[in-house]
Amino acid sequence: MKARIKWIEGTAMLGESGSGHGVVMDGPPDLGGRNLGVRPMEMLLLGMGGCTQFDVLLILRRARQQVTDCVVELEAERADTDPKVFTRIHAHFIVTGHALNERQVARAIQLSAEKYCSASIMLGASATVTHDYEIRDV
């Protein structure tokens, strides 16, 4: 896997993935940024959310669950001093579908957290990562 970060100006930068996609990142105005994009640490949190959601949806599809929507709301705390690593991350899953099996949803989230989601397992080396969920029937 490769990535390339190109400085634009000030604290703005363009991240280019090895698959050819780009994303603008920037710092806050009080540090010279113009607020043109997400902060790099926000990208880490977004990456974890995307990684775990991908796993959960794949596992639920394989279990033939009729998922119509899945949202992962993440809340994180960082250390007060440098390096300001994540110290706590909580992922709240809102899984919507037709007659979803609660056991299957819980199992999918657990498998992602403990076995498949590289991002959350990696971030779990420095942060306490927790998960919970709610199921909405349509």
TrEMBL record:
SUPFAM superfamilies per UniProt: OsmC-like
Protein name: OsmC family protein
Native source organism of the sequence: Thiohalocapsa marina
